[in-house]
TrEMBL record:
Lineage, top ranks: Bacteria, Candidatus Terryibacteriota
Organism of origin: Candidatus Terrybacteria bacterium CG10_big_fil_rev_8_21_14_0_10_41_10
GO molecular function, one term: structural constituent of ribosome
Family indicated by similarity: Belongs to the universal ribosomal protein uS2 family.
Protein name: Small ribosomal subunit protein uS2
Gene that encodes it: rpsB
Cited Pfam families: Ribosomal_S2
């Protein structure tokens, strides 16, 4: 599986993925029928992903994310699985994107206007707390407000910067994030997801078949997505820098 002599670059990538444990799926009895095309074989009771196909799928997903970066589009990270929480949050913060860490609230996408009101309410309460505006209230009232802020922040804090519907969502384990994926499908929002052998890829626009329970595998996937988005941002910045020069050159040629 790791022998790709024709493509030494892929060989290095395959070996890195293998070392991260991305090739490991679940037992054959857990496999979703639609994932069969991504399976290479079985070892020690576990299904093994064909990492060459994983590389291809990840490349397609990264190209999509890179284009989003070029257009400075918003992507929403959904990683409420315990193995994914820290990585999703860190990645989102790194590129200034919103994220869902604790639990996906029903209606996040399908009832976005209402969710946005709650996010704005959280932001308003935080501002009032920071400015001392709440000092005029009793100790009990301030305590109640503080508890309310903490509760809202737990579920909505990662989405404070979400001004409009995202252009895509990045998911770790679509089976675990079923509510979020269903909402994205309903709203026509593309889904990029790392998914193991027990998941259904049919509703996923950019499936990446790989181990979605290993922290090293998840970290690799998310870091590649972040890298792709940054490449898109860099390309957009370079194009913006060159545009005036190109226009000036074109004007000189015309004259």
């Amino acid at each position: 599986m790791l022998e790709t002599k024709e493509n030494p670059v892929n060989q290095k990538v395959l070996e890195e993925m293998y070392a991260k444990g991305m090739h490991l799926g679940y037992s054959p009895t857990s496999r979703h029928p639609q994932m069969s095309k991504y399976i290479f074989g079985t070892r020690s009771g576990l299904e093994i992903f064909d990492l060459e196909k994983t590389v291809d799928c990840l490349s397609v997903a990264k190209e999509f994310v890179k284009n989003l970066g070029k257009e400075k589009k918003t992507i929403l990270f959904a990683g409420t699985k315990k193995e994914a929480m820290a990585f999703s949050e860190k990645a989102a913060v790194e590129i200034g994107m919103p994220y869902v860490r604790e639990r996906w609230l029903g209606g996040t996408l399908t009832n976005f206007s209402e969710i946005k009101k709650r996010i704005n309410h959280l932001i308003d309460l935080k501002k009032k707390m920071a400015s001392g505006e709440l000092d005029k209230y009793t100790k009990k009232e301030k305590s109640q407000t503080d508890k309310k802020i903490k509760k809202l922040d737990r579920y909505l804090g990662g989405m404070e910067g979400l001004e409009r519907m995202p252009s895509a969502i990045i998911v770790v384990d679509p089976k675990h994030e079923k509510i979020g994926v269903d909402e994205a499908v309903c709203m026509g929002i593309p889904v990029v997801a790392i998914m193991s052998s027990d998941c259904d890829p049919r509703d996923i626009n950019y499936p990446v078949p790989a181990n979605d329970s290993s922290s090293t595998s998840i970290e690799y996937f998310i870091s590649e997505i972040v890298k792709a988005y940054k490449e898109g941002l860099a390309a957009a910045q370079e194009a913006a820098t060159l545009s005036p020069q190109v226009a000036e050159k074109a004007a000189e040629i015309k004259n």
